[in-house]
Amino acid sequence: MNNPQLDPMKPIDVKFENSHLKKIFLEHLNSIYLGKHHLLDFFKEVEEIAALQQLKLAIDEIHADTKNQISAMDDIYKSIDRQPSKTSVLGIKAMTLEAYLSVIKSGKSAVERDVFILFYLQIIEGIEVTYFKVLKNLAKEIGYSNTFLDQPFDTAVENKILFESIYKEYIS
Q1: Using alpha carbons only, what angle is made at residue 43 by residues 39 and 48, rounded to the nearest 5 degrees?
Q2: Distance, CA of 108 to CA of 130 (rounded, Å)
Q3: Centroid of chain to Cα 10
Q4: 69 with 127: CB under 8 angstroms?
Q5: How far, in Å, CA of 21 to CA of 169, rounded?
Q6: pTM (two decimals)
């Protein structure tokens, strides 16, 4: 016997009001925006710890890219007539703390520290790619221009590929 009240909903059955989608968009934008601000300090810390010059240069590049992504997000806030608002970025803070502790753990050689840095940088870039892709999809659905998100998304993808290639080269 099929009870319609017990049938699970399917994604196609869920309908969001435009105002709810805008709220979700803003919450995600706040999360990545504040997370990016936190990452600026993290990148400087791990750049000082890194031994490989190529890795140091890549981290310096990601630091500059992050500033540009923040600037692009400032433009997004302006275009939707909103301001960044405080939200928890505990997840990214916990991951960067874990990364930092893993990297500085005593007994690790410079090579081991660099491998750990690369590992965590790849995770961070993967999260950023996902955030920007979600924002692009939400923006399109809401009717916002999602071209504002093309540059930050493309940069996150490029940085992820960069750290993957350095990692592969380093461990080969």
Answers
A1: 155
A2: 31
A3: 28
A4: no
A5: 42
A6: 0.85
